[in-house]
Amino acid sequence: MRDIAYTDIVKAVRDLCIQANHQLPADLCSAIRNAQNTERSPVGRAILKDVEENFTIAAQRSLPICQDTGMAVVFCRLGQEAHIDGGLLSDAVNEGVALGYTEGFLRCSVVEDPLRRVNTNNNAPAVLHLELTAGDALEITVAPKGFGSENMSFLHMFNPSATQVEVEDFIVGVVSSAGSNPCPPVVVGVGLGGTSEMAALLAKKALLRPVGQENPDPFYADMEAALLSRINDLGVGPQGLGGTTTAFSVSILTYPTHIAGLPCAVNLGCHVTRHASKTL
Ligand code: SF4
Q1: Which residue minimizes the CA distance to atom 1 of ligand 1?
Q2: Measured between alpha carbons, how far is 113 from 165 in angstroms, rounded to an integer?
Q3: String of b and e for 220-246 (b: at least 16 CB within 10 Å)?
Q4: Would the pTM count as exceeding 0.90?
Q5: Counting atoms of ligand 1 from 1, which one is nearest the CA of 182?
């Protein structure tokens, strides 16, 4: 059994909140740069250039990439041979988020109660997803999620008789009806299978896959390529002002499901699909 100090988790989460909000992942930076060579609309190209300038300045001057610094979605993979010394994992994560957002001068966007809506003033609590794994390490990923894109999430519980085309039409329809709201170009996360809540979680997790990395299953790699092509033919374009770059990638995660159903969830990540990770 290996001890991991509570205070080390607090510091790691604090730093990851700031890092994720200041530095876009390298794969997404490359996608934004490359899209300037393929985007057919002059306005679209100009927007992509502005987006590149924005993330470059943010990284250079340690500023948030976007004013919406998001709700902190935190994925933890905890090895079963590790013991957290000094407190609860959830407390450490929430303390780290509170420190990261206040000390990092990131906008605090979380309200204590969904109906009474009083700001917690430190962006805590996080939305924490914990997975137990083999080993004695703790992998932490902080993925701040803005709600321009989060509000465009959809879940559809298909009949098991639904065809692949019907599922694809639903996914494309979600991106089409979202229009400019999720600040395109987007990253499209899809969760297929499991139960309703599993599909929603898979769709969110799918946003963590590096842009441009192919699905390891050739069947789903083909489906992702076909979906990306259809989505980029929609004409939504950068910031919804028209163009051929509506999405940078489509990422599908699957799970076994019941004979009587076919859940499909879509979670859209904006052009600021942020995440940063650290292993303790
Ligand atoms: S959807 Fe993304 S880019 Fe748009 S305001 Fe929210 S965080 Fe910023």
Answers
A1: 148
A2: 40
A3: beebbeebbebbbebebbbbbeebbbb
A4: yes
A5: 1
Instruction: Give, for ligand 1, the residue of 73, 106, 149 to mutate: max count of ligand atoms closer than 8 Å to Cβ.
Output: 149
**What is the chain's Cα-based Rg?**
19
> Is there an atom of ligand 1 within 6 Å of 142 CB?
no
Tell me the best of 207, 239, 272, 275 to mutate to test the pocket of ligand 1, counting ligand atoms within 8 Å of each CB and taking the most: 272
In 3D, which of 197, 184, 208 has the Cα closest to residue 155? Answer: 197
Asked if residue 121 lies in contact with residue 251, where contact means CB atoms within 8 angstroms, the answer is no
What are the pLDDT tens digits along the chain (280 aa)?
Answer: 999 999 999 999 999 999 999 999 999 999 999 999 999 999 999 999 999 999 999 999 999 999 999 999 999 999 999 999 999 999 999 999 999 999 999 999 999 999 999 999 999 999 999 999 999 999 999 999 999 999 999 999 999 999 999 999 999 999 999 999 999 999 999 999 999 999 999 999 999 999 999 999 999 999 999 999 999 999 999 999 999 999 999 999 999 999 999 999 999 999 999 999 999 9
Alpha helices of the chain — where are they, by DSSP H?
Answer: 6-22, 26-38, 42-61, 89-103, 147-150, 164-178, 196-206, 218-232
273: CA distance to ligand 1 center in Å?
9
Q: Is 270 in the pocket of ligand 1 (CB under 6 A)?
A: yes
Ligand 1 center from residue 133 Cα (angstroms): 32
Q: Which of 21, 183, 273 to mutate to test the pocket of ligand 1 (most atoms within 8 A of CB)?
A: 183
Q: Which tokens go with 263?
A: 């859940």
